[in-house]
Amino acid sequence: MPVQRGQIGRITFSWTSIPMLYAYVFYVVTSVLVVLVGYERFDILLNKSKKFDEYIYSIIFIIYLIPHFWVPFVGWGVAYEVCDYKNSWGTFQLHYYKITGKNLQFPLLSTLIIVISLGCLILAVVFLLTLSALLDGFTLYHTTAYLHIITMINMNCALWYINCRAIGNASTALAESFQNDIEHNCCAYIVAHYRVLWLSLSELLQKLGNAYARTYSTYSLFMMTNITVAVYGFTSEIVDHGIRFSFKEIGLLVDATYCLLLLFVFCDCSHQASLRISKKVRVSLMQVNLTTVDPATRKEIELFLTAIQMNPPKVSLKGYTVVNRELITAVQTTNSHTNV
């Protein structure tokens, strides 16, 4: 995602910018490596794989190469929409400051980004070395073509987590500030302004899903496909040979568990962010004693509750799917039918 900071508070993208030129060069170099390793993987699949388990491993290794080739479509192709989403944060923070009189805080954000980024790289190295040790035909040379791909997959999950965490922090700060303000002075003016601010935050969550729709639609499909193939291979090994916990079985299980864990984090943090936006604010509104406020305030409270009901905060990938815990259930159901 070769976007960059332009003027203060603005994120920009250009097809001829320095980050984009770096992306071109890096993509070409890694493409050569991926094509070379991919050719060897296809040769193993078509000419050297004789056993069923060897076919499964070859398919999994080829699947892991696919994300490299969709980068221009799911990464660069949505850069303008991502810039619009990121710039919306500046507008929301300004509105938050005007209404609450406080700056919106994101505790330990810089530290979190550094730790997660290093963790993604280390996790990718450990994962690839584990597969190289457990699965036949996956040499250390082959891992060089997969390192940036696995790191990118991890980083996509981390990016989604950080975005959802930021929205969760904003929703908590908004709810706490709203609760404090209505405790001191519950009037129509305050409720109306917080309603507008809440709608802006809900729209920000929807923009997150729309901006990264291509990225995370393909991300989810990749994870589901990989989990299905790995689980199918693992269960087939058990059916044919019984539970032996051989290197092959453990390798397939590690692969399926790894992808399922990333998919769970992706879905769960979206679910949590959606809940946090509406839950605390709704509780604060429901706790207001309507008999003690004037008619204008009662009307604004009703409008606020109606806005929450009519505009449920949810992460939708441009209508293709809603990202929540039910997506995990769908994967489990698919794998159950596949195994049957």
Automatic annotation (TrEMBL):
Segments crossing the lipid bilayer: 21-39, 59-83, 104-133, 145-162, 216-235, 250-270
Any Pfam family matching the protein: 7tm_7
Keyword NAD: no
Cellular location(s): Cell membrane
Principal place of residence: membrane
Domain of life of the organism encoding this protein: Eukaryota
InterPro entries with a match to the protein in the record: 7TM_chemorcpt
GO terms under biological process: sensory perception of taste; signal transduction
GO cellular component term of the entry, any: plasma membrane
Membrane protein topology class: Multi-pass membrane protein
Record's keyword annotation contains Membrane: yes
Keywords: Cell membrane, Membrane, Receptor, Transducer, Transmembrane, Transmembrane helix
Purpose of the protein: Gustatory receptor which mediates acceptance or avoidance behavior, depending on its substrates.
Family named by the database record: Belongs to the insect chemoreceptor superfamily. Gustatory receptor (GR) family.
Protein name: Gustatory receptor
